[in-house]
Design a protein that fits this description.
mainly beta; 14-stranded parallel β-sheet; 15 helices; 74 strands; 12% helix; elongated; disordered N terminus
Length: 1173
C-alpha cells in the first residue's frame, strides 16, 4: 500500500535542505543488483535478464536441510511500500526513497566517492528489482520473505504458488517472487515476494491492513523443495504471519556444522557481494560454521550492511563447560577453555567480500540475505559444548539493535513509521557435527539449461572415438551433442573462482586423443611445456580437499587405450580390467547418486592411493586384489566375498564381513566391527593390523600369521600382529590359525628357525579380551626344527605362539636324552595335550601354558617334577625299612648263643633302638633317593624246651624318604615272632614280621612359573618271613665260625590315593606293591668270653624278583608307569656286633650294619638292652 499524500509531502519538505547541498555525481547502481550488461535497458523484459535466468537454474549445492521434513519456518511481512520506487536509480534519487518511507543514510551520500546505492537506502527502483532477478516489479510494493526449511527448486518458484491471506479476508497473490537475495547455491531457502500486502498502521487499529497467514497453493505449477531423495511438493503448507511494525526480525535456525565452502557462491549476475564465505575471509581458521537463519534480513539500522567484524556488537554464544558451568563467549579472537578443549570466535561470514584494510560499512558490499555465519575454530569436544546463540540488542551496554530492511537507516525522516528492531532473544543451537544434513541437486535434463559458458554444473559427455569430455559450458555441450557425442550425466558442480577453489585445466593430446583434466600446477606446467599436449584452458572450478558436501572425482588410466578416465563413480574403474587408479582428481558437490554398493570385481590388482569414502557399502568380488593404501570409509560396511582387500590406511564405517572365499590383509587401522569366515592376513611381510572395534573369527575362518623373526616389529625379523584397541573390544578366536615361516613376500628374510621354548609374543593383543579358541593351528611346512611344533599360549588379552616338542613322550626327536620316567609322564601329557592351537581347558589349562615356554634344558626337570617318582621310591624305601626290621629279629636270634654265654639261661626281655640311612644312587638313568629311618622295638624270648628258643617283639619305625625336592614320611607299626632250634651244631632259625604302614607324601612341582606342592596320605601293610640254616664250628675255646645260608621273602603293599592341594599336577596313584625274594650266603665269626662277646658277619645277597619298584599313576586321567632306581641284584653285607653284661642279669649289645650294591648302600645300627631272669 502506498503512503498517504500528506505523509509523502512531509518527507519531501524534510529533505529540501539535503537536496540543496547533495552533490551531483554519477549514479552507482545498487540495491541487491548491478548492471549485468550495458545493453540492458528498462525496455528489456525482466524474464530475459541474466539474474532471472541464472536464479531459475535448477541447481543446489550443499544446501542445508533445517528439519527432517519440509516446513515453512516463518512468513512475516518484511516492509511496506518501498519496492519499485519510480525514478530511484542513483544517490541523486534518495529523496524519492525517503519520500516512499524507505530508510536512508543521507549523511553518507555526501561522501566522495558516493557509496553504492544499496548502502544509502533499502528502497529499490523498478528496474533494480527486475535486474535483481524478480522478472517483474510492483510500484511502491511491499515485501514478504518466506523462510522454508528445505531449499527450493529454483524453477518452481512462481508468484501464483503463494497465497497471502490479509486481515481483511482478502487473499492476494504476489506480483513477483524470487530467491534473491538468498541466491548462493548453498542457500535458497527463502522466497522473497513483492506485492500489495499491508499498510503501516498498527495491526488491530482502524484501517490497518496486514497479512495473517501464508500458504503454498497450486499455481501454474507446483512449488517444490528438494530433500534427500529429490524434489517434493510444498503445496498445502501454511503458517501465520506477523507485522514488523510490531516486532522485529528473529532467528528461525542456528545450525552448527564443520565448516565447508562448497556451494557458497552466487550466480555471476548476482555476485557483487561475493566471495563472502568463511574460507575466503579467514582461510584455514574457518574450522566450524554456526549458520544463523533469520526471519528477515538483518541490518544495523535497516539500510547498512553487517561487517565481518560485527560479532561483538550483535551476538554472543553460550556454552556449558566440562564441569557444568555456564560460559559466555562474547569476544572475537579470544580463546575460551571449556575444559574439554578450546573455542574461539574468528568472525562473521556471509556478509561481504574480503577487504583491504579496516572494514568500512560505508562502502563495503553486503549480500543482505537471511544468513549469517559465525566462524569458529577449536577442539571438537569443546565445540560440542555450545548451547545457544543470543541477540542482546541495545538493552545491554555495548550491543546494538538489529533491523530488517524496513528500518530507519542512519538518518530517519521524522514522522515516518519504520519497522521495529529485533527483540532480545536466545536461540538453541542445533548440533549437526555428525550428520551431513545438506543436499545437492542439479537437473539431469540438458534441455532445462540455458545456453551459457559458465554454468554452475559440469556436463559429462561420451565420445565414441576418444575419452569422455567435461565442460561447464552449455554452449560447448550443445555443439558436442550436435557433433554426435552423447550426454552421460551432469555429475558435479562447477565452483566459482574464489579462494580455496582450484582451476581445473584441460589438456588435449592430438596424437593419442587423450584428455587430461588437472588442478595440479606442476602437472599443468609439465603438460604445457610438452609439444604433444595442447592447453585448452580453465574448464571449471573444484576443490583440492575433501570439504563436507564435496565428493571425490577419481582419475584413472585405461591401459588398453591410453586414455584417462575421470569419474565420481568408483565402479567405473573397479569393475573394469586394466584400469589403473591415479588418484583423486578433485572434489566437487555431486549431483548423480553414486551406487550404494561400491563393487570391486576384477581378476587383477588395483592400487588406490587415496582414502575412499562412500555412504554405501564396499564389496570385494572376483579373484583380484584391491589395495587401499590410504584406507577409506564405507557407511554401510564392507563385504569381502571373493578376492583380497588389502588395507594399509585407516578404514571405518559399518560392519566388515570376510566371507569364506575372501581375504582381508594389510597393516592398516580398521574401525569397523569385523567378522571373518574367510582369511584374515594381517601385516605386509610382516606387519601389524590394528582394529578399533571387536573382531570375531568364525568357525570356518583362518587367521594367517607370518613369522620372520622374534621381534615385535614390522618388516624383516618381525612377525604379523593383530592389535585390538579399546577396553570394550575383544578378539574372538575360532577357526584355524595358519602360521608361516617361509614363502613370505619380500622384504622378509625367510631364514628364521625358532628354537624350543621360543615365544612369539602377542600375535593377537586386545585391550579388552581374547575370547574363544582356534580349532587348530596349521603348522608351517618348512622352517621348524625336527621334532618341534608351534602351539598357542592364550592369555586374558593376548595370544602368543611358542615352539614346543612335537611329543613330550619322545624327546629323542629333538636330539634330547630322556629317562623312562620322563618318557612315561611325557606320553601321558601327550594324551591330554590339546590339539595345537586349541585353548586348553580343565587341567590342561594350567599345565600346558606352563610347559610350553620351557627351553630344551628345562623340559626334563619339569617332567621329573610331574612324574611323582617319589611314590615308587617309597616302596623301595619301605622295603629297606622291612629289612631293617628284619635285622631286629635276626640279630636277636643270632644273639641267643651269645646271651647264653654271657648270661645265665632263662627268660630275657629286651628293648632296642635302631636306625639306618639308605642311599640309592641313580641307576639306568633313573634318579635315586635317600631315606633315613629310626625306631624302637621291645621283645621277650626264652627257651620253653631245651634246644629251642622262641620270642616275640613289636615296635615302631619312622622313615623319611627324599627324592630331589619331594619327600614322603613312612610310619610303620610292626610285630614279629621268631625262633631258633639247635640240632647239635646245626642251627635253624625262622621269623615272621608284619607291619601297618602310613604314608604322607609331599611333591614339589615346578614348571616354569607354575609352582605347587601336591600332597597325599595313604596307608598299607608290609610283611617279611625268612629261614636260615647255619653250622657252628668251634675254632677254639672262645672262637666259633658259623657258615649260614638264608632265604627271605618281603612284600610291601601301598593302597591307592589321590594327591590333594595340587590341581592339574596332582596325581592319582593306583594300588602299588613291591615284592622281594632274597637269598644270603655268609659266615659269622664269633668271639665269646664270660660276660663279653663279639661277632663279625659277612654275606652275599642275591635278589630273585623285581630289581626296582614299579607303580602306576594318573595325571589328569592319563595313566603312566613310574620306576624307582634299581638297587641291583647282588649285595654284600657286613654286620659287626658286641655285647656284654653290665651287671648280673643285665646286658648291653650293639650292632653296625652295612649293605652295599652296585648303586645302593645302607648304613645302620642298633643298641639293645636285655634283662634276664
Amino acid at each position: 500500500m502506498t503512503v498517504g499524500f500528506a505523509w509523502m509531502m512531509s518527507a519531501l519538505m524534510t529533505l529540501s535542505e539535503y537536496l540543496t547541498r547533495a552533490p551531483k555525481v554519477p549514479a552507482i547502481v545498487g540495491l541487491i543488483c548491478f548492471w549485468a550488461s550495458a545493453e540492458i535497458t528498462a525496455q528489456t523484459p525482466g524474464e530475459q535478464l541474466p539474474a532471472y535466468i541464472q536464479l531459475r537454474r535448477d541447481v543446489l549445492v550443499n544446501s542445508d536441510l533445517w528439519s527432517n521434513q519440509p516446513e515453512i519456518l516463518a512468513a512475516n511481512l518484511g516492509f511496506e511500500g518501498i519496492v519499485g520506487i519510480p525514478g530511484l536509480r542513483s544517490a541523486d534519487d534518495l529523496p524519492l526513497a525517503a519520500a516512499a518511507g524507505a530508510g536512508v543514510n543521507l549523511d553518507w551520500a555526501q561522501f566522495t566517492p558516493v557509496p553504492p546505492l544499496r548502502n544509502l537506502t533499502s528502497g529499490a527502483g523498478p528496474l533494480g528489482v527486475e535486474l535483481a532477478g524478480f522478472g517483474n516489479s510492483p510500484i511502491l510494493g511491499d515485501a514478504m520473505p518466506i523462510e522454508v526449511s528445505w531449499p527450493l527448486l529454483p524453477s518452481s518458484v512462481q508468484p501464483d504458488n503463494i497465497a497471502i491471506t490479509l486481515n481483511t479476508g482478502d487473499v492476494v497473490t504476489p506480483v513477483a517472487a524470487a530467491l534473491n537475495p538468498n541466491y548462493d547455491y548453498n542457500e535458497r531457502h527463502v522466497i522473497v515476494t513483492f506485492g500489495e500486502f499491508a499498510n503501516r498502521q498498527t495491526p488491530g487499529s482502524a484501517g490497518a491492513i496486514y497479512p495473517v497467514a501464508v500458504s503454498f497453493v497450486d499455481g501454474s505449477s507446483s512449488l517444490m523443495a528438494v530433500g534427500p531423495h529429490g524434489p517434493v511438493s510444498l503445496t498445502g503448507l501454511t503458517i501465520g504471519s506477523s507485522s514488523p511494525y510490531v516486532s522485529g526480525p528473529g532467528l528461525v535456525g542456528a545450525r552448527l556444522t564443520p565448516f565447508s565452502p562448497v556451494g557458497d557462491f552466487a550466480p555471476p549476475a548476482l555476485a557483487g557481494a561475493s566471495p563472502n564465505d568463511g574460507f575466503s575471509l579467514y582461510g584455514d581458521d574457518a574450522e566450524y560454521r554456526l549458520r544463523l537463519f533469520t526471519s528477515g534480513g538483518f541490518s544495523p539500522d535497516g539500510v547498512s550492511g553487517f561487517l565481518a567484524t560485527d560479532f561483538e556488537k550483535f551476538f554472543r554464544l553460550h556454552a556449558v563447560d566440562a564441569s557444568g558451568q555456564s560460559v559466555t563467549i562474547d569476544k572475537t579472537g579470544q580463546v575460551y577453555d571449556l575444559g574439554a578443549g578450546t573455542v574461539q570466535v574468528i568472525g562473521l561470514a556471509e556478509v561481504g567480500p574480503p577487504t583491504t584494510g579496516e572494514p568500512d560499512r560505508t562502502y563495503d558490499a553486503e549480500d543482505h540475505d537471511n544468513y549469517f555465519d559465525i566462524i569458529l575454530k577449536g577442539d571438537q569436544a569443546a565445540i560440542r559444548l555450545l548451547q545457544s546463540v543470543e541477540i542482546p540488542t541495545s538493552t545491554e551496554p555495548g550491543y546494538s539493535d538489529i533491523y530488517n530492511p524496513g528500518g530507519p537507516g542512519r538518518t530517519p525522516i521524522p514522522g515516518v513509521i519504520y519497522t521495529e528492531p529485533a527483540a532480545p532473544q536466545t536461540f538453541a543451537i542445533n548440533q549437526a557435527l555428525d550428520e551431513s544434513g545438506t543436499v545437492s541437486y542439479a537437473s539431469q535434463d540438458f534441455a532445462n539449461y540455458d545456453l551459457d559458458d559458465d554454468l554452475p554444473v559440469v556436463f559429462w559427455l561420451n565420445d565414441s572415438s576418444g575419452p569422455g569430455r567435461l565442460t561447464a559450458s552449455s554452449n560447448e555441450t550443445n555443439s558436442l551433442l550436435a557433433a554426435g557425442l552423447t550426454l552421460k550425466s551432469i555429475p558435479f558442480a562447477n565452483e566459482a573462482a574464489r579462494p580455496g577453489v582450484s582451476d581445473i585445466d584441460a589438456f588435449f593430446n592430438s596424437v593419442t586423443g587423450d584428455r587430461i583434466y588437472t588442478l595440479d600446477a606442476v602437472e599443468s606446467l609439465q603438460l604445457a611445456s610438452s609439444d604433444a599436449w595442447q592447453h585448452i584452458g580453465r574448464v571449471f572450478g573444484a576443490f583440492d580437499r575433501s570439504w563436507p558436501g564435496a565428493e571425490p572425482v577419481y582419475r584413472f588410466l585405461d591401459s588398453t587405450t591410453g586414455w584417462h578416465v575421470f569419474s565420481p563413480n568408483l565402479n567405473d574403474a573397479l569393475q573394469a580390467e586394466g584400469i589403473e587408479y591415479q588418484g583423486i582428481g578433485w572434489y566437487a558437490a555431486s549431483f548423480v547418486p553414486v551406487p550404494q554398493e561400491v563393487r570391486f570385481d576384477r581378476s587383477d590388482e588395483l592400487l588406490v592411493t587415496d582414502a575412499l569414502a562412500s555412504g554405501g557399502m564396499l564389496s570385494i568380488n572376483g579373484s583380484g586384489m584391491l589395495r587401499l593404501e590410504a584406507g577409506g570409509s564405507f557407511t554401510q560396511g564392507i563385504i569381502i566375498r571373493d578376492g583380497r582387500l588389502q588395507v594399509n590406511g585407516s578404514l571405518s564405517g559399518g560392519p566388515l564381513t570376510v566371507e569364506r572365499d575372501g581375504v582381508l590383509s594389510g597393516k592398516g587401522v580398521i574401525s569397523n566391527e569385523v567378522t571373518v569366515s574367510g582369511r584374515l592376513a594381517p601385516g605386509q611381510s610382516p606387519g601389524t593390523m590394528t582394529f578399533l572395534s571387536s573382531v570375531d573369527m568364525a568357525v570356518d575362518g583362518v587367521l594367517e600369521i607370518e613369522v620372520d623373526g622374534p621381534l615385535p616389529v614390522d618388516g624383516p625379523g618381525g612377525y604379523d600382529r593383530v592389535i585390538v584397541v579399546g577396553a570394550e573390544n575383544h578378539f574372538g578366536t575360532a577357526g584355524i590359525l595358519d602360521v608361516r615361516l617361509r614363502d613370505i613376500s619380500p622384504p622378509a628374510t625367510n631364514s628364521f628357525t625358532p628354537h624350543v621354548g621360543q615365544r612369539i609374543r602377542g600375535v593377537i593383543t586386545s585391550n579388552g579380551s581374547v575370547t574363544g579358541s582356534f580349532a587348530s593351528l596349521s603348522q608351517p611346512t618348512d622352517g621348524l626344527l625336527p621334532g618341534t611344533r608351534l602351539d598357542t599360549l592364550y592369555h586374558t588379552a593376548s595370544v602368543d605362539l611358542v615352539v614346543t616338542p612335537q611329543s613330550y613322550g619322545d624327546l629323542a626327536a629333538l636330539g634330547m636324552t630322556q629317562t623312562v620316567n620322563q618318557a612315561a609322564v611325557g606320553s601321558a601329557l601327550d594324551t591330554i595335550r590339546p590339539v595345537a592351537g586349541v585353548r586348553p581347558s580343565g587341567a590342561a589349562a594350567e599345565l600346558f601354558p606352563a610347559l610350553a615356554p620351557l627351553g630344551a634344558d628345562q623340559i626334563a626337570p619339569a617332567l621329573d617334577s610331574l612324574a611323582g617318582q617319589i611314590h615308587a621310591d617309597v616302596l623301595d624305601a619301605a622295603l629297606a625299612g622291612q629289612r631293617l626290621l628284619q635285622s631286629v629279629v635276626v640279630t636277636r636270634m643270632a644273639g641267643f648263643n651269645l646271651d647264653s654265654a654271657v648270661n645265665k639261661s632263662g627268660h630275657i626281655g629286651w628293648m632296642q633302638a635302631l636306625g639306618r640311612r639308605v642311599d640309592q644312587r641313580t641307576s639306568d638313568g633313573v634318579s635315586g633317593y635317600k631315606a633315613l629311618s629310626q625306631g624302637a622295638a621291645v621283645g621277650i624270648d626264652g627257651s620253653p624246651v631245651p634246644g629251642t628258643s622262641l620270642g616275640v617283639s613289636f615296635g615302631e619305625l619312622a622313615s623319611e624318604v627324599t627324592s630331589g625336592s619331594d619327600r614322603t614320611d613312612i610310619n610303620a607299626i610292626f610285630a614279629a615272632a621268631y625262633g631258633v632250634h639247635h640240632f647239635d651244631n646245626i642251627r635253624l632259625s625262622s621269623h615272621l614280621l608284619g607291619s601297618f604302614d602310613e604314608y604322607q607324601s609331599y611333591r614339589a612341582v615346578q614348571i616354569g612359573t607354575l609352582n605347587s606342592i601336591p600332597s597325599g596320605n595313604s596307608d598299607g601293610w608290609s610283611f617279611n618271613t625268612g629261614t636260615s640254616v647255619g653250622r657252628v664250628m668251634r675254632l677254639s675255646d672262645v672262637c666259633t665260625i658259623e657258615p649260614v645260608t638264608s632265604m627271605t621273602y618281603f612284600r610291601v603293599k601301598r593302597n591307592a590315593f589321590q594327591e590333594s592341594t595340587g590341581d592339574s599336577e596332582a596325581l592319582s596313584v593306583f594300588d602299588s606293591s613291591r615284592a622281594s625274594l632274597r637269598s644270603r650266603i655268609g659266615a659269622t665269626l664269633a668271639y665269646v668270653r664270660p660276660r663279653l662277646a663279639g661277632t663279625a658277619s659277612l654275606g652275599w645277597n642275591h635278589e630273585f624278583l623285581d630289581k626296582a619298584a614299579l607303580i602306576s599313576s594318573s595325571l589328569s586321567g592319563s595313566a603312566f608307569p613310574v620306576r624307582a632306581a634299581s638297587p641291583g641284584r647282588n649285595f654284600f653285607d657286613l654286620d659287626l656286633g658286641l655285647s656284654g653284661e653290665l651287671i648280673p642279669g643285665i646286658s648291653l649289645a650293639g650292632n653296625y650294619m652295612l649293605t652295599t650294591g652296585q648303586s645302593f648302600a645302607t648304613h645302620g645300627g642298633l643298641v639293645r638292652l636285655a634283662l634276664q631272669w
